[in-house]
């Protein structure tokens, strides 16, 4: 019988090679147990410093002797190789000696937090089968253990072990060395420790400030990594673990060279230094961070706080209680990174990103992270080892993690979510890390955490602001509405002080969840009298039927992305029109274009539904306002459940509010007054008659007012499809009071010349020819006028021409031109290759444009060299730059008509990835983009 195995998705050859290179790193497999290698290191570095603690300093030989003495006491108490020894100690040198002693006796070290309640502590020890307890003398008076367990104090003197006592093998019953939530083998700990030591040249001259308690997974490196390399551990007092001043003093006093902690704990120290104008000590050469998401801003703060640039590495593990399995030494931080990637697998480890059907995910595609190699090898003789699944092609056992990740083109793993930090909306899981990252991008936010609360379908955000920042929950919620799906909006945003930390320095998400306020009941809006509210299932079914008919598809799931079903922006607008006409559902077009799904349409209408509107060609009276009138105030913002309130117009924002490619925010622009003719008269009122045009003659000057008038109130944004279409049909940009006034007739080109230009949103798969593309881009070239002066076919303020054009070619989509990035050199009228391997992630574009981007043969990016115009026009430079980009776009659109190329203007995208693709600098600002290819022939 043949075993069923999922058919793998064949990746492109270059991506398969990328995976092979990432996973093809091997190193000699340790031949001995962790215990034996620690003993070898102690003999090799016997006189070197091994441990520094308050009141105690030990060499490697002295530390080994202490551990041997405690191990002898364990053996005398009946501990044999393969037993489990509970290590219940508070932070201090005793955790180092106790862990080494348990291993030397051949036992599995079982850390138990002494602060646990008695039932939990006893259960932890008895369920794991502990046969003895190692603790501290003062704890024996405070906590008790089952009578059958011998209890030994690590700090109490005992008989010295014979000088040549060899450590026990420890492999007679199990090859586990340490047990947290799951057993960890000697080989797994040794592999991680030795490879990190080797990668960063850790040696006898190094000192690591050990901050993790014994029951933390971070202790797996802190306890053993430095000792295997002959380096020293520095421990402070337990009361100083959350005192950044004391930590800074320990770093400085003891010449610490290695820092190893979660990012949050390092952030505590950096905040302290920033408040006092201090710096990290010059001795610090390496910063190892892991255990939670690493914000690129923290890496930059490390470099700013150090007299010289220490190496900063990001580490990650395959399981919450396992040793490190991946590593990335951060160099230049890519501007598109929202979080620092966890890097590539350490030697003898392998990583795979697979779909839920166990198919390999292509580059940039999110899947579940799986590990092979040492990480997937369970210790022998241990129960409850993590289950594995077979690799879809090789059959290799893989450890299925709770992390969701994607592979970057550089061969790095980018973790984008964690199954413990997700909410479920209609059985569809959504990653809260997206919300967390978006909050962190707000300029006022120092740090943020978002956790699931309630039944798992809601979330809470806790935010700490920078000193002096004033952003409140309403502003932060409005910020999120522009960044994430409506389903990811937290039901409550709490702005407060520092985030709580766990005992090992990670953000304490469990505590944030436990302290969450009870969810308040949100009353549903009263349904309109003309039609009762429908239940969710009925409304979903009705909207789904209309959607299938409009899009011409057989079936649709509530959370299906309609773009994946082939919908275009035009079809989405048609769908919104049909829903309003047939079901009375006013659809927020901006929201639908950003998050196209049936569930998003229905979500904002649950509990409130109006009857189908009358077929009135004019918008309601609130759409336009006569001069002097005041529109109704919009509802006050606040933390409202996402399903009940539509978000503000959504787009794909830049990675950071301070991104160098982000255009400066425009200042407030007062709304243009709408003439009375555009306002529909009230029922029964006489129609408005526009005033006669002014008589010809001199126009008297308008005196300047002595007091500036108050700014006109901004009219509310129109979201209903009917209201928006009616507003557009009214053509408010035309002065209708002159519609009946005689004038001089103008002639011009035939209508075909004007109507030939159009935007194309879908492209055929065939390639564009290089001659056609050259004809298009040649319109931007610089020529010489009759007098030899440089001339362009479009204007620029002061002839400065700061807007540059960049081309990204999709591989194989332009005949005669390789893929990658190019600069359009206007003076030479040539394409200059920048990076033949350059690509852009599809999610750099707004979701509504991703299908077009995927079909396009190429894309053009208009990017301003802002310092080419600022010295001439100062604050007006950006305005003139935008005008120039508009003229270039119009020129390209008209030229494209004669080349057979279709163009789709794109005004909104995440510009951060452009920096690397086009080798840009801080002087560059993204302005506009166009997607191009062979236009798809639409069915009539």
TrEMBL record:
<dbReference type="GO" id="GO:0016874">
    <property type="term" value="F:ligase activity"/>
</dbReference>
<dbReference type="GO" id="GO:0016491">
    <property type="term" value="F:oxidoreductase activity"/>
</dbReference>
<dbReference type="Pfam" id="PF00501">
    <property type="entry name" value="AMP-binding"/>
</dbReference>
<dbReference type="Pfam" id="PF00881">
    <property type="entry name" value="Nitroreductase"/>
</dbReference>
<dbReference type="InterPro" id="IPR042099">
    <property type="entry name" value="ANL_N_sf"/>
</dbReference>
<feature type="region of interest" description="Disordered">
    <location>
        <begin position="610"/>
        <end position="719"/>
    </location>
</feature>
<dbReference type="InterPro" id="IPR000873">
    <property type="entry name" value="AMP-dep_synth/lig_dom"/>
</dbReference>
<dbReference type="InterPro" id="IPR036736">
    <property type="entry name" value="ACP-like_sf"/>
</dbReference>
<feature type="compositionally biased region" description="Pro residues">
    <location>
        <begin position="688"/>
        <end position="716"/>
    </location>
</feature>
<protein>
    <submittedName>
        <fullName>AMP-dependent synthetase and ligase</fullName>
    </submittedName>
</protein>
<dbReference type="InterPro" id="IPR009081">
    <property type="entry name" value="PP-bd_ACP"/>
</dbReference>
<dbReference type="Pfam" id="PF13193">
    <property type="entry name" value="AMP-binding_C"/>
</dbReference>
<dbReference type="GO" id="GO:0044550">
    <property type="term" value="P:secondary metabolite biosynthetic process"/>
</dbReference>
<dbReference type="GO" id="GO:0031177">
    <property type="term" value="F:phosphopantetheine binding"/>
</dbReference>
<dbReference type="GO" id="GO:0043041">
    <property type="term" value="P:amino acid activation for nonribosomal peptide biosynthetic process"/>
</dbReference>
<keyword id="KW-0436">Ligase</keyword>
<dbReference type="InterPro" id="IPR025110">
    <property type="entry name" value="AMP-bd_C"/>
</dbReference>
<feature type="compositionally biased region" description="Pro residues">
    <location>
        <begin position="629"/>
        <end position="652"/>
    </location>
</feature>
<dbReference type="InterPro" id="IPR000415">
    <property type="entry name" value="Nitroreductase-like"/>
</dbReference>
<dbReference type="GO" id="GO:0005737">
    <property type="term" value="C:cytoplasm"/>
</dbReference>
<dbReference type="Pfam" id="PF00550">
    <property type="entry name" value="PP-binding"/>
</dbReference>
<dbReference type="InterPro" id="IPR045851">
    <property type="entry name" value="AMP-bd_C_sf"/>
</dbReference>
<feature type="region of interest" description="Disordered">
    <location>
        <begin position="740"/>
        <end position="765"/>
    </location>
</feature>
<dbReference type="InterPro" id="IPR029479">
    <property type="entry name" value="Nitroreductase"/>
</dbReference>
<feature type="compositionally biased region" description="Pro residues">
    <location>
        <begin position="661"/>
        <end position="679"/>
    </location>
</feature>
């Amino acid at each position: 019988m043949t075993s069923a195995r999922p058919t793998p998705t064949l990746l492109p050859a270059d991506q398969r090679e990328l995976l092979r290179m990432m996973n093809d790193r091997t190193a000699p497999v340790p031949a001995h147990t962790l215990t034996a290698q620690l003993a070898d290191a102690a003999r090799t570095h016997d006189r070197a410093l091994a441990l520094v603690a308050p009141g105690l300093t030990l060499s490697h030989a002295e530390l080994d002797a202490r551990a041997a003495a405690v191990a002898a006491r364990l053996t005398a108490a009946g501990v044999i190789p393969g037993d489990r020894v509970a290590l219940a100690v508070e932070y201090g040198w005793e955790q180092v000696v106790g862990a080494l002693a348990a291993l030397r006796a051949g036992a599995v070290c079982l850390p138990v937090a002494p602060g646990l309640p008695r039932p939990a502590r006893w259960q932890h020890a008895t369920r794991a089968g502990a046969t003895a307890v190692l603790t501290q003398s003062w704890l024996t008076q405070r906590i008790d253990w089952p009578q059958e367990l011998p209890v030994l104090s690590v700090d109490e003197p005992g008989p010295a072990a014979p000088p040549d006592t060899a450590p026990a093998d420890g492999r007679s019953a199990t090859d586990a060395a340490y047990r947290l939530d799951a057993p960890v083998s000697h080989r797994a700990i040794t592999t991680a420790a030795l490879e990190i030591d080797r990668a960063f040249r850790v040696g006898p001259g190094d000192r690591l400030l050990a901050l993790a308690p014994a029951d933390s997974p971070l202790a797996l490196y802190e306890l053993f990594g430095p000792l295997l390399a002959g380096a020293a551990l520095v421990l402070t007092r337990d009361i100083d673990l959350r005192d950044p001043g004391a930590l800074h003093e320990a770093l400085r006093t003891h010449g610490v060279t290695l820092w190893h902690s979660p990012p949050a704990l390092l952030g505590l120290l950096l905040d302290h230094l920033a408040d006092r104008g201090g710096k990290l000590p010059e001795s610090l050469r390496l910063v190892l961070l892991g255990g939670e998401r690493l914000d690129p801003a923290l890496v930059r703060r490390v470099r700013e706080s150090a007299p010289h640039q220490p190496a900063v590495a990001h580490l990650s593990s395959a399981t919450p209680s396992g040793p490190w399995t991946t590593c990335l030494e951060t160099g230049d931080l890519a501007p598109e990174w929202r979080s620092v990637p966890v890097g590539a697998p350490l030697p003898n480890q392998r990583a795979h990103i697979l779909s839920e059907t166990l198919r390999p995910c292509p580059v940039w595609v999110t899947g579940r992270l799986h590990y092979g190699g040492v990480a997937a090898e369970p210790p022998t003789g241990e129960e409850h080892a993590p289950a594995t699944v077979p690799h879809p092609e090789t059959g290799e056992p893989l450890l299925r993690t709770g992390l969701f990740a994607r592979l970057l083109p550089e061969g790095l793993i980018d973790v984008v979510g964690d199954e413990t930090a997700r909410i479920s909306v209609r059985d569809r899981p959504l990653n809260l890390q997206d919300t967390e990252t978006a909050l962190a991008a707000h300029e006022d936010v120092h740090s943020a955490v978002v956790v699931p609360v309630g039944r798992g379908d809601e979330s809470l955000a806790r935010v700490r602001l920078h000193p002096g920042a004033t952003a409140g929950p309403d502003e932060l919620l409005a910020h999120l509405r522009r960044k994430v799906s409506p389903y990811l909006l937290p039901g409550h945003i709490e702005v407060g002080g520092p985030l709580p930390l766990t005992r090992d320095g990670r953000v304490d998400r469990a505590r944030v969840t436990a302290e969450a306020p009870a969810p308040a009941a949100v009353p549903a809006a009263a349904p309109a009298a003309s039609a009762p509210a429908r239940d969710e299932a009925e409304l979903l079914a009705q909207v789904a039927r209309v959607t299938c008919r409009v899009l011409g598809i057989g079936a649709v799931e509530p959370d299906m992305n309609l773009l994946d079903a082939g919908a275009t922006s035009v079809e989405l607008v048609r769908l919104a029109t049909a829903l309003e006409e047939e079901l009375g559902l006013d659809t927020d077009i901006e929201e639908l274009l950003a998050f196209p799904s049936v569930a998003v349409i229905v979500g904002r209408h649950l509990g409130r539904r109006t009857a189908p509107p009358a077929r009135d060609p004019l918008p309601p009276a609130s759409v336009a306002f006569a001069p002097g009138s005041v529109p109704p105030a919009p509802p006050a913002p606040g933390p409202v459940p996402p399903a009940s309130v539509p978000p503000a117009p959504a787009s794909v924002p830049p990675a950071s509010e301070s991104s160098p490619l982000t255009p400066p925010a425009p200042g407030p622009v007062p709304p243009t007054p709408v003439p009375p003719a555009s306002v529909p008269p009230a029922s029964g009122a006489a129609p408005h008659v526009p005033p006669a045009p002014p008589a010809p003659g001199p126009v008297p000057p308008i005196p300047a007012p002595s007091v500036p008038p108050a700014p006109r109130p901004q009219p509310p944004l129109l979201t209903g499809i009917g209201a928006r279409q009616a507003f557009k049909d009214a053509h408010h940009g035309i002065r209708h009071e002159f519609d009946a006034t005689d004038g001089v007739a103008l002639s011009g080109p035939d209508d075909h010349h004007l109507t030939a230009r159009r935007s194309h949103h879908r492209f055929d798969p065939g390639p564009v020819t290089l001659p056609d593309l050259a004809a298009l881009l040649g319109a931007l070239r610089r020529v010489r006028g009759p007098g030899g002066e440089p001339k362009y076919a479009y204007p620029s303020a002061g002839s400065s021409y700061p807007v540059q054009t960049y081309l990204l070619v999709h591989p194989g989509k332009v005949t005669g031109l390789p893929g990658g990035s190019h600069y359009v050199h206007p003076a030479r009228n040539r394409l200059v290759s920048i990076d033949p391997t350059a690509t852009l992630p599809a999610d750099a574009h707004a979701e509504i444009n991703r299908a077009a981007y995927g079909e396009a043969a190429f894309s053009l990016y208009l990017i301003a060299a802002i310092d080419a115009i600022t010295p001439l026009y100062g604050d007006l430079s950006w305005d003139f730059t935008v005008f120039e980009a508009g003229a270039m776009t119009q020129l390209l659109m008209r030229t494209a008509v004669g080349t057979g190329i279709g163009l789709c203007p794109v005004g909104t995208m995440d510009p951060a990835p452009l920096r690397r693709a086009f080798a840009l600098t801080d002087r560059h600002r993204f302005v506009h983009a166009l997607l191009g290819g062979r236009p798809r022939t639409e069915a009539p």
